[in-house]
Recover the amino acids of this structure.
């Protein structure tokens, strides 16, 4: 965490005849309103966001859905562990492994590029610890 000093520069026009407005030609109407320039210094402190504490496993619906040809899948895991995200066609054939490895607890996302696949419905599945969940997604080319 650190502190930084900044200077704000403010320029404004004093309005000595509040509510009055001028309409008309290009010459305009001369006024006694002043242009004011002010500065002030302030310190800003760095703030680091803490990730929200994740207390449960969750697999979200992909977005966008339907998609063409890419979509994003978000999920949360409450503890560090092995995670596998796979995509299957409607016949149960695995068509992609989006992630397979160790991950820390928290919120995560993977992108799925289906540009080499045919239009249709696909299932994506997460396996993490004892948690397993699947959702449907629709590729429309």
């Amino acid at each position: 965490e650190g502190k930084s000093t900044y200077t704000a520069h403010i320029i404004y026009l004093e309005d000595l005849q509040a509510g009055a407005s001028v309409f008309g030609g290009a010459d305009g109407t001369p006024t006694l309103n002043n242009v004011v320039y002010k500065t002030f210094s302030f310190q800003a402190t760095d703030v680091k966001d803490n990730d929200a504490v994740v207390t449960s496993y969750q697999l979200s619906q992909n977005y966008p859905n339907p998609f063409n040809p890419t979509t994003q899948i978000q999920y949360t895991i409450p503890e560090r562990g092995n995670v596998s995200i796979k995509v299957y066609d409607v016949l149960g054939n695995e068509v992609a492994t989006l992630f397979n490895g160790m991950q820390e607890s928290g919120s995560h996302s993977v992108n799925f590029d289906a540009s080499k696949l045919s239009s249709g419905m696909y299932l994506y599945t997460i396996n993490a610890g004892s948690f397993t969940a699947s959702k449907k997604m629709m590729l429309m080319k």
About this structure: The radius of gyration is 28 Å. Strands lie at 3-13, 35-45, 58-59, 70-77, 81-89, 94-103, 106-113, 120-128, 131-139. The mean pLDDT is 87. The chain has two domains: 3-45, 58-139.
